[in-house]
Design a protein that fits this description.
By secondary structure, this protein is mainly beta. It is built from five helices and 39 strands. The protein folds into two domains: about 80 residues, Sandwich (Immunoglobulin-like), CATH 2.60.40; about 625 residues, TonB-dependent receptor, beta-barrel domain (Maltoporin, Chain A, Beta Barrel), CATH 2.40.170.20. It has a 22-stranded antiparallel beta barrel. The protein has a five-stranded mixed beta sheet with strand order 8-13-14-11-12. The chain has a four-stranded antiparallel beta sheet with strand order 3-2-5-6, with no helix packed on it.
Length: about 750
């Protein structure tokens, strides 16, 4: 017995240090999970685990803001460990650390390097580099993402952790997000998607800025971006600055602003009248981080003025027929920066307050509060000298949001995340009726869990939501109040198996739902931005989606392949259908679109192949094969993207990167003849290039680049652009950009 007591009296002691500053880390958790032993380091970063027997053990070490590591040791006698932990970020990212294989090559992810090559483009234009994303466009300046044929409220856009509201006004409204703020864009399809809503039937697009807590003391960091475009003679400028007050006062600060101006856009042959735009945005981000507590305030404003193509605003029925049948715009124009009527004014303001408390290395709680206000005005064409000169369409929507989130990550056990969410939304309008005023009160809760079993990772989430609408409409001279209630459960299950170190396979199965939006239920009037009249259906019921997808990826040294197939049934699929009717109003003649509901199937394949030809040269082939079927009529689904692909050849050597690419879009042949005002346009191929180079001058890092799109100046029309009825797509455009990275270190005066 005495011999046994002696043999099981071994100690593991040690000290835990920050790997950069080599200072002691107190309150660090050191544990041996197999024995249930756990201890915290003292104020000097020291610890002791005693009463251990000889044998092999896995020792876990974790500290706030630092990586979680484990050490395998074989004990024979007392052992001393000196451990250095690396800060992951200057943010409480908690349990986000995971091993990701070449995330920059992922089908569903764009990193900052990918987006550097496209600086100056809108946030939607950046998104189209993600597999499965197409763009639903209105003219040359307004676009929004479509994921595997699904769009609108079915695609949730999350900006800086906050769900972007305002899509209840219709399919034409582009995301009000400054693209210069984006550091990463992810298309989320797994269990995490339910955190942001059960109505993300098409997926969740999460746009993340750089964490403010990456800023370093005694340093002023940032960048200046200057961009010029040949088409539209566009000019764009952007400034970002950030830093930390001091180590003793860890207040993090970042400010950002951008300005953009374009004149009339030119197709291959013609300038398009009144297609200019101007934009001004800014944001302020403040943060505080100390001893496991984080607090962050973010405020942003987005201001946009968009000219509406004059050729889409037609005065009578015969002119509308001519405009739709003409191969070139009936209204001839030259270049100008002036934006005349009709035009839109868009304002979006957002404030976010987030507080997070790391209770220990395994538990974190967060409270996020936010408010958004969208204001949209549309200024109609003046038909006479006595016409009203103010906005003919003036809408406001305010959204108050709250989320309480708890995360728990016990080492090598089931990881948990749960949250409660509340939303209060109000919509009001003056001027021309399009959709009624309404209030929305929503409440939801979700639970997510994940578990790693050697090579198999399983995750799942369940969410419950309750939505209540109060709709206020005038019926004749009487104000009518309609109350609508929707409730439902949603779930997502995902299994991912690591076939080897370089290949994996994953399967996702989900059931989600979406309540009809107010514009789908009650719109009844001119939507000038789309140059059409929209008619809702108050009898629409909620959508229910059943989706399955299977993905395979292999990342070898010479090649990388990612491919996914999906099949989705949507009961009660709501779609805006051309009615083939035209109505003449006092504002002009416009085609009519109506909301309809059917059972639909959406299925297809997305793939990406990268081959490293040699050390410097590579090729990338990507493609989409999307299909949509109306299961009630047994006919093709309206407004689906056609098969498309991209081939690029790239050269990368040190700080020089050159890409030449060809985009191909096939003709949409799955089309019901006579179901639209015009048949789908012909297939087209566009050639473009990117050239980027980095260099250092005067102690600062510079990036410069030239991008060319449609360099063959091809004439074409896009099936997913509503203005294809009236005009071609933009012609050749050359974009030149330069970025200066600011890294100014503060020095003490002598």
């Amino acid at each position: 017995m005495n011999a046994q007591n002696i043999s099981c009296n071994i100690k593991i002691s040690g000290i835990v240090l920050d790997s950069i500053e080599q200072v002691a880390l107190s309150n660090n958790i050191v544990s041996i999970e197999s024995l249930g032993k756990e201890i915290k380091t003292d104020s000097k970063g020291q610890f002791t685990l005693s009463g251990l027997c000889p044998g092999k053990y896995e020792v876990h070490i974790s500290h706030l803001n630092c990586e979680h590591i484990h050490v395998l040791i074989e004990l024979h006698s007392d052992t001393f460990l000196k451990i250095s932990l690396r800060h992951i970020e200057r943010e409480l990212i908690g349990f986000k650390l995971s091993a990701k294989l070449e995330k920059s090559e992922d089908l569903n992810h764009l990193n900052s390097k990918n987006m550097d090559y496209r600086k100056g483009q809108s946030i939607s234009m950046l998104m189209q580099d993600i597999a499965g994303i197409s763009l639903l466009k209105t003219g040359s300046t307004v676009s929004k993402p479509m994921v595997n044929g699904l769009f609108g409220n079915r695609v949730i856009i999350v900006n800086n952790g906050i769900r972007l509201e305002g899509q209840n006004w219709g399919m034409e409204h582009a995301p009000e997000i400054d693209a210069f703020l984006a550091s990463e864009i992810d298309l989320i399809k797994g269990a995490e998607s339910l955190r942001y809503g059960a109505d993300g039937i098409g997926g969740v697009i999460r746009i993340s800025p750089k964490s403010i807590f990456n800023e370093k003391p005694k340093t002023l960091n940032g960048e200046i971006n200057l961009i010029g475009n040949s088409n539209g003679r566009g000019k764009t400028g952007n400034l970002i600055l950030g830093g930390v007050l001091s180590k003793s006062l860890p207040i993090y600060i970042r400010v950002q602003s951008s300005i953009k101006q374009f004149g009339n856009i030119k197709t291959a042959n013609d300038f398009l009248a009144n297609t200019g735009m101007s934009e001004f945005n800014y944001s302020v981000n403040l943060g505080y981080l100390r001893k496991g507590f984080l607090s962050e305030v973010f405020y942003s404003e987005f201001h946009n003025k968009i000219g509406i193509f004059t050729g889409s605003q037609v005065g009578n029925l015969s002119d509308l027929e001519k405009a739709m049948s003409s191969s070139s715009p009936l209204i001839k124009a030259n270049f100008t920066n002036t934006i005349d009527r009709p035009y839109q004014l868009v304002q979006h303001r957002m404030v976010k307050v987030r507080n997070a408390l790391q209770l220990n290395a395994k538990n974190k709680i967060e409270l996020t509060l936010s408010y958004q206000k969208n204001h949209r005005e549309e200024y109609d064409v003046l038909r006479s000298a006595n016409s009203f000169t103010g906005p003919s369409f003036d809408y406001y929507i305010g959204s108050s949001f709250a989320e309480l989130l708890w995360t728990k990550n016990p080492f090598h056990r089931i990881n948990w995340k749960a949250g409660l969410i509340g939303l209060r939304q109000s919509n009001a309008y003056t001027g021309r009726f399009f959709i009624p005023g309404f209030y929305q009160n929503s409440f939801g809760g979700f639970v997510m869990a994940s578990k790693q079993y050697k090579k198999l990772n399983i995750e799942g989430s369940v969410r419950c939501d309750q939505k209540h609408f109060e709709i206020y409409r005038w019926i004749g001279t009487v104000s009518n109040k309609t109350q609508l209630n929707y409730a439902g459960l949603a779930y997502v299950l995902k299994a991912e198996y690591q076939l080897s170190n370089k290949e994996k396979i994953s399967f996702i199965q989900s059931s989600t739902w979406r309540a009809p939006a107010p514009n789908e239920l009650y719109s009844n009037g001119l939507h000038q931005g789309l140059a059409s009249i929209e008619i809702g259906d108050s009898n629409l019921t909620k959508e229910r989606s059943y989706s399955q997808s299977l993905a395979y990826s292999v990342h070898q040294k010479k090649y990388k392949l990612d491919v996914e197939g999906y099949y989705q049934i949507v009961n009660g699929y709501i779609n805006l259908i051309p009615s083939n009717k035209v109505i003449l109003t006092i504002r002009g003649a416009y085609p009519v679109f109506e909301y309809q509901q059917n059972k639909a199937a959406l299925y297809g394949v997305n793939a990406r192949w990268k081959y490293q030809i040699n050390k410097s040269i590579y090729s990338i082939i990507s493609g989409q094969l999307p299909y949509g079927q109306n299961l009630d009529t047994k006919k093709a689904l309206n407004l689906m993207p056609s098969a498309n692909g991209k081939l690029s050849i790239g050269y990368k050597h040190k700080t020089l990167n050159v890409d030449v690419w060809v985009n191909y879009q096939s003709k949409q042949n799955r089309y019901v003849v006579g179901s639209d005002f015009m048949p789908p346009p012909e297939a087209y191929a566009l050639i473009g290039f990117d050239l980027n180079y980095e260099f250092i001058s005067m102690g600062q890092n510079f990036k410069c680049g030239i991008t060319g799109s449609n360099i063959g100046n091809s004439r074409y029309r896009d099936y997913l652009n509503r203005f294809r009825y009236f005009t071609d797509e933009p012609g050749v455009n050359i974009s030149a950009k330069i970025t200066m990275n600011i890294n100014h270190k503060k020095t003490k005066s002598i």
